[in-house]
Amino acid sequence: MQERFEAAAATWDENPVRVAMISAVAAAVGDAVPLSPALTALDFGCGTGLLTVALAPYVGRIVGVDTSPAMLEKLGEKIAALALVNVSTLAVDLTADPPPPALRADLIVSAMALHHIADIPALLRTLAGLLAPGGYFALADLDSEDGSFHPDPTGVYHRGLDRAWLMDALTALGCTDVRATTAYVMVRAGRQYPIFLVSGRR
Q1: Per-residue pLDDT tens over the stretch 18-50
Q2: What pTM, to 2 d.p., does this model score?
Q3: Are 181 and 167 within 8 A, CB to CB?
Q4: Residue 2: per-residue pLDDT
Q5: How far is it, in rounded angstroms, from Cα 55 to Cα 50?
Q6: Rounded alpha-carbon distances, angstroms, from residue 148 to 4, 16, 37, 189, 196
Q7: Which among 4, 81, 115, 132 is least surrounded, fewest beta carbons within 10 Å?
Q8: What's the rounded Cα separation, in Å, for the pair 156 and 116?
Q9: Rounded-to-integer distance, Cα 44 and Cα 121, Å
Q10: Residue 69 buriedness (CB in 10 A; 0-12 / 13-18 / 19+)
């Protein structure tokens, strides 16, 4: 899977639909969470940092976390070009490696990464352990679909996610005010694929 994203990094941001989708997700995060300079945020599976950069003006600090060096290199270029002093990157696989001891966040966001994770409950437990008391989750992904969204299923472990299942998973982790909204509807080959945002406070 990592090879796939390494190869795609150079042109990742050239897809206008992807850019529009992430912009809509960022707006949905702003509606769901009281963003402020007091927050430290973590963007899991940040890729080239489309969501990371979109949220940067509204939080005190944000860390883009990914396993792809090429994706993080693109984010690093944006950080330099835009002089983003409150954005940093971290290369770590939180599904396999222990988080760095100092990694903590008041807000954990993610966009279109969870369906690439084999064991989502295990990842959610890891992420929950990184949240400060009263911290927020804001997780965006593809609604359950028939598999047509990904013509190449390499590295795809789930055909979208059941948003109700994810809401229950966050509730089981102790989150309150758990809710879901449709952040964006992506159209491909005449078909509609809703993208949800599930949020909650732990």
Answers
A1: 999 999 999 999 999 999 999 999 999 999 999
A2: 0.95
A3: no
A4: 55
A5: 9
A6: 18, 20, 40, 10, 18
A7: 81
A8: 5
A9: 15
A10: middle
